[in-house]
Design goal:
2 domains, alpha/beta, 15% strand, 14 helices, 12 strands, 5-stranded parallel beta sheet
């Protein structure tokens, strides 16, 4: 099967060096896939499988360029970067990878949490410029803090389990309680979670109903000096509202592995291509993101919370199993 593999990263090379993908003719692309991606007539006519990451934008125009496309395999849990309606119209299967970040993302979240409350970012920056001010770096113990976890699927639940080992008080919000953690987690309303949590961390997928679920109103409800962590999707948070909250000290610090309209900030090699497709709202968000990144108490990483060799291997193994199962008529992890 002819397969185009976009968003190819160095961390994925090791897998392909040790695994033989029998039955696939794979072409690798380091850049993402979008409406401006140039492909040959042969690639457009013969490709049956696309594999992408969230940095690609698989719109209806992209999908309709391929004449014999059968499967789109995203190497992520979220799939809002793929036009699902267009796939349904063309009878193209879309498959994802669920649960791969249970350990990697949860451990990253705890790492980010400690870095924030111990003021590691400003301390490191001050040390580099030789302006050390010890009084600025006094932090908190995790045991003193109340954690609010929004979304208690596999990753959110794993965060709760680690936090429980630090004897943190844990509030959680989800439409369905996770029975694995109900003995040590208190499920509350979102408003209660916002009001009483020292640290808030997001672990939910992006769907239209939760776009900008945290904005000016929600920041007003939160306690002063709250810490915010987002490893899910940037669009869950109104970044203009977050910037105002950071500047006013309402938010004491934020760790962001994802940004709103992150393609414009996180992929400089593709900037000229991505900016052509950007909306005015996304361009505004990109400017605000630059302001956020410059704040000393904001930690920003380029969507790497999942990125361990174990997680990457799990993603790739699941991706190829999904594709093979679809070909055999027994699709696994199928969205449509």
């Amino acid at each position: 099967m002819k397969m185009l593999f976009f968003d190819y990263r160095e961390s994925e090379k090791k897998y392909f060096e040790t695994h033989v993908c029998t039955g696939f003719d794979i072409t690798f692309f380091k850049h993402n896939l979008n409406e401006n991606t140039e492909l040959t007539e042969e690639e457009l006519n013969e490709t049956e499988v696309l594999s992408v990451f969230v940095s690609s934008q698989v719109t209806d125009k992209v999908i309709n360029k391929f004449k014999n496309l059968r499967i789109i395999a995203t190497r992520s849990t979220g799939y809002n970067h793929i036009n699902i309606d267009a796939c349904q119209d063309r009878n193209i299967a879309v498959v994802n990878v669920d649960g791969y970040g249970k350990y990697s993302v949860s451990q990253y979240t705890i790492c980010a949490m400690i870095a924030l409350i111990r003021n590691m970012a400003p301390a490191m920056k001050d040390f580099q410029i030789e302006k050390i001010m010890f009084d600025k770096y006094t932090g908190y113990d995790l045991t003193e803090m109340t954690l609010g976890v929004i979304g208690t699927g596999s990753i959110g639940a794993a965060v709760c389990k680690i936090a429980n080992m630090f004897n943190m008080h844990i509030f959680a919000y989800d439409c369905k309680k996770n029975l694995e953690i109900v003995n040590f987690v208190e499920y509350v309303s979102l408003e209660e979670l916002y009001k009483h949590s020292n640290i808030i961390t997001l672990h939910i997928p992006l769907i239209p109903d939760v776009y900008h679920m945290i904005s000016d109103k929600e920041f007003e409800i939160m306690m002063d000096g709250v810490y915010l962590i987002n490893t899910s999707r940037g669009e869950l948070i109104d970044n203009t509202a977050l910037y105002k909250a950071i500047r006013s000290k309402k938010v004491a610090g934020a760790a962001l592995d994802v940004l709103e309209c992150e393609n414009l900030n996180m992929y400089p090699d593709d900037f000229l291509t991505n900016i052509k497709d950007a909306t005015c709202d996304c361009l505004n968000s990109a400017i605000v993101n630059q302001k956020l990144i410059a704040e000393p108490n904001v930690l920003v990483t380029p969507h790497i919370a999942y990125n361990t060799f174990h997680a990457v291997n799990t993603i790739l193994e699941t991706t190829f199993n999904n594709i093979k199962n679809c070909v055999s008529g027994k699709c696994t992890n199928r969205i449509v």
